[in-house]
Amino acid sequence: MMQEIRFHGRGGQGTVVASIILAKAFFSAGYYVQSFPVFGVERRGAPVEAYLRLDTRKIQIRCNVYTPDHVVVQDVRLLENVPVTDGLKAGGWILINAAGQPENLSDFAGFRLAWVDATGIAIHNRLGTRTHPMINTAIIGAFARIMEMPPLQMISDAIREDIHTKPEQNIQACRDAYDSAHVFGLVQ
User: Fold this and answer.
1) What are phi and psi of 112, to 5 degrees?
2) CA dihedral in degrees (1, 56, 33, 7; nearest 10)?
3) Which domains does the chain have, with CATH numbers?
């Protein structure tokens, strides 16, 4: 059964790279995949979306993801002005980069919620700078935890293949996020 994931981030956070690394890891795990970005204003800090489709059968559709099964939010501040849950299927996961439990849980009613301090993990692993941490490998580690796939080894291999700056620190950030993701579950 096909699954569609929509990533929300800001330019410079590695949102597109996160979707590509996950696509490569899922491909290695035997899935058919599609990964592609949508840009508005192409500048650092501007909202960015990226999409990932995966299926055990060949994927025939070629369009944006309008009704995702899951949503990844790489910047908690996007919740204030980007409708990240638009089209999200009931019971779908919302993974948020946040230092603690997001406020207003009622905003997530009917969805499964998880969060991880990807920013803190990236800073701890010296990925990017303190003011512009690169959180993408941390967020995909947390995603693998909540989805229970793809295997971390396949993500590590994809990181080694695609990320040439500090690959081992990026792999560690992925593992740290996998281990520290907070899984709330279904919000009533």
Assistant:
1) -95, 135
2) 30
3) 3-186 (3.40.920.10)
